[in-house]
Amino acid sequence: MQHHHGHLVSVMAENHITQPCIGVILDGSGYGLDGTVWGGEVLIGDARSCNRFAWLQPVPMPGGEAAIRQPWRMTAAYLYAVYGDDLLQLDSPLIHRQPKQELTLIMRMMATHTNCPITSSCGRLFDAVAGLLGLREEISYEAQAAVELEMLADEQSADPYPTPRFSGSGALATDFLIRRLVEDWSRGVAPALIAQRFHATLAEIFVQACRAAREKTGIPLTALSGGVFQNRLFFHLIHDRLQKEGFKVISHHSVPTNDGGLALGQAVIAAAQVQSGKKIENHQTKRVLA
Question: For 100-111, what is each residue's pLDDT tens digit?
C-alpha cells in the first residue's frame, strides 16, 4: 500500500473518521505510485481508495540520498529549476560557499538526469530554503536543516508572498516562491523575516490546493499528517488558515504524525481490503520529469 495513503488513514483512524477526506500529507520521502519520491501531497480518499489531487512541483534530488545529507544540493536543484545555468550568477550563500566545479557537476547531473531521482517532497523544500539562507550545508541528524529554519523564523507574524491562484489539480508551483526568497535575500531583508514569509507562503499554497479540492469534490474535511507537521509554526499557520476557509481540520494528538504513526493507517487499509475482498484503489499519475 502507498506510504502517503497510510499517513492519511492514520490520522483519520485516530479521529474516528471514515468518510472521505482531503489529506495534506507532507514529509521527507515516500515511494510514489509514479516511480518518483513523494512527500508534498494533497490526497483525496479514505481507507478503501485514494486519489492524488495535487503535489509540490517536482525537482531532482542531485545524488539521491546525498541530497538529504547535504541540503545545499536541494538548494541547487530549486535554483536550477528556476534560473537554469544563470544560478551561478546569483548572490546566494550557495554560490559563495560551494566550489564552482562542484556546482557545475551538480548542474550537469540535473541536465542529464544522472543519479537525480525526482521528488515532490516538502521536507526537501525546507532543506532547500535552509540552504538558500545559509543555515546548513550538511546535517548530522534527520530534519536538522528544517528545524533550524523553523527556529530562525521571526516570532512576529508576516504576510505570505503573493501566491498564484491554484485551480484544477496537478503540480503546485514553487518557482514564484524561490524567486521572491532570492530577491529578498539580495535586498538584505532579515533572514528571520524571510523564513517567516516562507512558512506563511507554503501554508497558503496548500490552503489553495485544499480549496480547489473542495470545489471539485464538495468535501469539507481536511486531514494533516506527515513529519513536516512536527514543525509547530507551519502546523499552526496552515491549521488556522484552513479553519478560516471553513474547513473542519483533523490532526494527530496521540498517534505520531511522522512515520511512527504509519502502521496504524496501514493496518486500517489492510482491514478495509480484507473486509471488501477488493484491492485498494490508488489512482496513479504519469511520471513527471523536472
Answer: 999 999 999 999
- β strands within 132-257, DSSP E: 170-172, 221-225, 248-250
Query: CA-CA distance, 25 to 225, in Å (whole number)?
Result: 5
d(CA 261, CA 132): 31
Q: Which helix (H) or strand (E) holds 263?
A: helix 262-276
Q: In the numeric block, which cell numbers belong to residue 49?
A: 481508495
pLDDT tens for residues 123-170? 999 999 999 999 988 899 989 999 999 999 987 788 999 999 898 889
* 280 confidence band (pLDDT: 50, 70, 90): low
Cβ proximity of 276 and 48 under 8 Å? yes
pLDDT score of 177 more than 50: yes
Going through the chain in order, the beta strands assigned E by DSSP cover 21-31, 37-45, 49-56, 59-60, 118-119, 170-172, 221-225, 248-250, 281-283
Q: What's the rounded Cα separation, in Å, for the pair 257 and 10?
A: 9
Cα–Cα distance measured from residue 207 to residue 193, given in angstroms and rounded to the nearest whole number: 21
CATH among 3.20.20.80, 3.40.980.10, 1.10.630.10, 1.10.357.160 for 61-201: 1.10.357.160
Q: Which CATH number fits domain 3-28+37-58+217-282: 3.20.20.30, 3.30.420.560, 3.30.365.10, 2.40.50.140?
A: 3.30.420.560
Under 8 Å between Cβ of 30 and 38: yes
What SS3 string covers 26-74? EEEEEECCCCCEEEEEEEEECCCEEEEEEEECCEECCCCCHHHHCCHHH
pTM above 0.70, yes or no: yes
